[in-house]
Amino acid sequence: MEMIIEEEKIKKERSAKLLLYFAIVSMFMMFAGLTSAYLVSSSRKDWNHEMHLPPAFTISTIVIFISSFAIQFAVRSMKNGNRERTTLLLLTTLVLGVIFIFFQFQGFDELVAQRFFFTGSESSITATFLYILTVLHMVHLFAGIISLLIIIYNHYKQKYNASQTLGIELGAIFWHFLDILWILLFLFLYFV
After folding, report:
1. Residue 50: what pLDDT?
2. What are phi and psi of 76, to 5 degrees?
């Protein structure tokens, strides 16, 4: 009987991770399509090649990179049964996610100060693409923050332990995806 329960648990974990991977691939394909459109549009006559990424985007990239380590250490701490350290690392990840969003908005302010607007008569296709890519990533990051809040709540309610870490693992996988996606977008926008 115990073996059947363990097999069911393994099947449930595989199914949950597989669904998450399908969602990640779908999100990645959306951004691949947008970056392809960016490349095609960059040959337009009205494309602004003078626009540079704001320094705040560099800071946000460093912040989200560090947050990925924090959530990975949270998973490891939970697997080791260290609840206090897991709590600290989950909260650290959450705070770093909020800091990332703060610096994204700082970057938007810097773009506006450079006179790159999202819409209106003074807007350009170049700036609009930049805003769309970054805002769409931020929307996904909001989903990641909501996931983190649910994970923190479930952790507080002691739904996780050393042998039951599926929720934290799923959250970490999604968070790592957001991290990698932003780094790829940042490098793409920086070099292209």
Report:
1. 81
2. -60, -40
Enumerate domains of the chain plus CATH numbers. 2-191 (1.20.120.80)
pTM flag (> 0.85): yes
In this predicted model, what pLDDT tens digit does every residue of 56-82 receive, in sequence order? 999 999 999 999 999 999 999 999 999
Residue 116 structure tokens = 């790159």
- DSSP H helices, 81-122, are 83-113
Q: HSE, CB side, 13 Å, CA atoms: give it for residue 115.
A: 4
The pLDDT assigned to 16 comes to 93
Rg (CA), the chain: 19
Is the distance from CB of 174 to CB of 150 less than 8 angstroms? no
Q: With beta carbons less than 8 A apart as the criterion, state whether 12 and 165 touch.
A: no
